[in-house]
Amino acid sequence: xxxxxxxxxxxxxxxxxxxxxxxxxxxxxxxxxxxxxxxxxxxxxxxxxxxxxxxxxxxxxxxxxxxxxxxxxxxxxxxxxxxxxxxxxxxxxxxxxxxxxxxxxxxxxxxxxxxxxxxxxxxxxxxxxxxxxxxxxxxxxxxxxxxxxxxxxxxxxxxxxxxxxxxxxxxxxxxxxxxxxxxxxxxxxxxxxxxxxxxxxxxxxxxxxxxxxxxxxxxxxxxxxxxxxxxxxxxxxxx
Amino acid sequence: xxxxxxxxxxxxxxxxxxxxxxxxxxxxxxxxxxxxxxxxxxxxxxxxxxxxxxxxxxxxxxxxxxxxxxxxxxxxxxxxxxxxxxxxxxxxxxxxxxxxxxxxxxxxxxxxxxxxxxxxxxxxxxxxxxxxxxxxxxxxxxxxxxxxxxxxxxxxxxxxxxxxxxxxxxxxxxxxxxxxxxxxxxxxxxxxxxxxxxxxxxxxxxxxxxxxxxxxxxxxxxxxxxxxxxxxxxxxxxxxxxxxxxxxxxxxxxxxxxxxxxxxxxxxxxxxxxxxxxxxxxxxxxxxxxxxxxxxxxxxxxxxxxxxxxxxxxxxxxxxxxxxxxxxxxxxxxxxxxxxxxxxxxxxxxxxxxxxxxxxxxxxxxxxxxxxxxxxxxxxxxxxxxxxxxxxxxxxxxxxxxxxxxxxxxxxxxxxxxxxxxxxxxxxxxxxxxxxxxxxxxxxxxxxxxxxxxxxxxxxxxxxxxxxxxxxxxxxxxxxxxxxxxxxxxxxxxxxxxxxxxxxxxxxxxxxxxxxxxxxxxxxxxxxxxxxxxxxxxxxxxxxx
Lengths: 239, 545
Hints:
The structure holds 2 protein chains of 2 kinds. Chain A is α+β, with helices and mostly antiparallel strands. Chain A is built from 6 helices and 5 strands, in the order αααααβββββα. Chain A has 3 domains: about 15-90, Cytochrome Bc1 Complex, Chain D, domain 2; about 110-155 and about 215-235; about 160-205. Chain A has helices at about 15-25, 55-60, 80-90, 110-115, 150-155, 220-235, and strands at about 160-165, 170-175, 180-185, 195-200, 205. The longest helix of chain A has 15 residues, at about 15-25. Chain B has 2 helices and 38 strands. Mean pLDDT of chain B is about 95; it is low at about 1-15. The chains are: A alpha+beta, B mainly beta.
């Protein structure tokens, strides 16, 4: 699903346009969106708008903030992405280049790890419920380093987790801000974590906690965790 | 009707009464979703004198003002497409507090749209267009909790509907039915925001109904829950309409009935467990969601009082079910132009299906925008009729095989809006006997009526049009009695309420939404329908009351 498929290079300009027209028809052409052949619908017309290729690439990749034009940089495989960009460019009078650069392949185990990290079939019991990697997932707790093994991942020290007590309710918490009139923290009692904002006078924070990262990994086997670590090694982890 | 003593504690209404009084406490008026107010100060004899009392402009014009305001104890709560929330003095429009939602730094599927908030336990709840649920302190407007439902960039889904609050549970549905996504409802604790349950509208491996999906098609098979459910306190069941199967128009890869897409489901509000379901459209290939409102009324059927659920779907048919058991009782069309089926049998089965063909245009009525869009119907216990907005628009559907890519568009083809066979595209409001489907009157309009119906005990039915007119019809005859130009098209849901003995009618205006923006192939004039984001509130002039 998220694995980049390496199709044979589309050397021929017409072939890439045909491929792009097909991708466009399936992805962009609904009456709610850009309409058949980019003639316009619920979203703007794309024919003869004077778009240049770099604009088409950037909007197709990243979308337009705050609108329903989402980015397709990760949802479309690279050959499809390039083909649909070439097709929209052709609607604006730009002829396709002879060939497109191919992306570096991702090793199979890391690709499996990536699918597991974001696995929608696990509902909330997946890594991306709390961690953002490569621009996807929910940025609740940053991944600062990649553990060496599944065992190390199980034993991960999570020194930032506290115990919060409010209205007679004690729960594990990740503090977002405190010291002011209001305290913001993630309540980790259940997944997904809940960002709660509580009057500071009504909450007590203590350092001891019984929460363990292992409790959030229960749905994954060691073998699966090993693949996930392979994936994390491949992506840029911010220090 | 039998009363259970505890109900008197939990509900200010007696069971079976879906009318609102001074307040408009829930999305559908009450949890029975009648969109009917028992207020009658404004009525057929004096509605001509109705005049604006105040207006509130949100400044958030994106995709129109689609919300249903909530009114409680003289305070009106209004949400905008970008999830800003305003608490206003319902008598004067004075701003009490505002909650400005931090705007997502990303594009979102289906765009910024919001259809309203819910209140309960001292909080205001809202689903957001980047797929969070937030709880706001009802007195101060301060955020109390916020939780992500799923990463909108991955799932191709978000929340546009108002939540439903049942006791200490807040339940939200989501969009995503035209994306490769598996739909669900999610419930959170109103106090803490902690997850209570999730109900997947598509059964997973080992669950009953899973065999109605071919291969892996269940993983991304649609079934979005993109509107708001109803709740019967006496039966303690919530009812929710479930959207189309995906890919929308191409079904060869998901052979089977595709449960519980295009169904009404009844769930236990505390656990999310399925109590019954009724599937209106097995193996949908027309994008005919059953996601709309469930209207809970008690009426006589064949000489016997029954607890009914009346439900209009996108295919332009009203289905009448027994809401205790899910038993099918009747179905009738609310559009004049339909050819996707020839009809519905006495036991609720579709007959004479006309299905799209791969790679070739097939003319289907009504169109994928729906014989009715999501704008809601109303029920008046005084006339005993429902009031429905219908669209007479068809489309050419071209089906094409498409592979699912999580979160990406997953239509499996395309549609091009076309006029119906009986003349130019148009719309109408009709009054029907809700059980037999006998039409009592019809009010015709040349463009698309995409605002909800509001019925009142003044025997009035209010709604608005895309040209900006907000108007009142006589509930018994359909005659237009009053109209006011609000300045922008109508795509929201008006409400009635009362403060200090004075009745008000409040309507959002501001054209927008996916369907509104896609009408130009049949109505080039749609280019002139104006965006905006204003709440206009009407009352009788003080001296004339």
